[in-house]
What does this fold into?
Amino acid sequence: MSSQASSVALVRFDAVAPLRARVSEWKAAGERVVLVPTMGALHRGHLSLVNRGRELGQRVIVSIFVNPTQFGPSEDFSRYPRDTETDLALLAGAGVDAAYLPSVETMYPKDFSTSLTVAGITDGLCGAYRPGHFAGVATVVTKLVNQVQPDIALFGEKDFQQLQVIRRAVRDLDIPVEIGGVPTLREEDGLALSSRNRYLDAEERRIAPIIHRELTRIAEGLRTGKAASPLVAASTDRLTEAGFSTIQYLSVCDADTLAPVEHATGPTRILVAAYLGSTRLIDNVAV
Ligand code: AMP
It folds into this structure.
């Protein structure tokens, strides 16, 4: 099917029942259904998840929902970029079958009372700086998966802790969905694509790729057998010199548990969150 032909086929759903009915039809026809949850303000990173979805299944659904419960009181919920028409056009062009855009009332009806806590793996990294964030994420993703009932749900490695938290919740609760991780799509200079990059001014945009350069540098050091602490200290200094104001964390972690490690003896991930002006950037690389 050409992207032209499939661009005609994008159907928008705002409610659960008709979407579920459509998904049931697809599944009854033997088609594998892939869900890509997003908060909109779509970019090529999101589309790489869509493309992976088209490889893995016959039907791809993208949800767009800026989830209020995963933003802290002083975070950017109200100024988070929203551009539904552009997003829908992008999805149509990418051959997506359905867009699901639930309202806040659909997701959180009056007296909504449930929250999913994933313990341990959410203690450190972003979890330490964004109390309640991962409970908000785990709850909304569980809800989206229950609403849509896809065979597969795809998430970006860009939000690596999020991916691991979701894997854990799905495993712990026997949620019948396969979770897939998709590598981070980057600009040519290494900056990970993010909806929040549009907050950066020209000078900040020039500085931002240093974050990936330092992650790569630490990874190379670890590969040659060096210890994490001195590598992290040197990179932290360089990030500060480059103009990053607050480095919330720059950590070398076990890739599964996200517990800090000093040497890369098993699967290892280096993760960072840092402010450039008022913009919080996160990134991570595998060792
Ligand atoms: P968001 O809209 O920021 O919630 O992101 C929706 C999904 O896209 C999440 O699973 C993200 O990890 C993923 N994503 C965001 N940026 C990128 C990127 N640069 N490369 C790959 N996946 C990404």
User: Anything to note?
Assistant: DSSP finds eleven helices and nine strands in the chain.
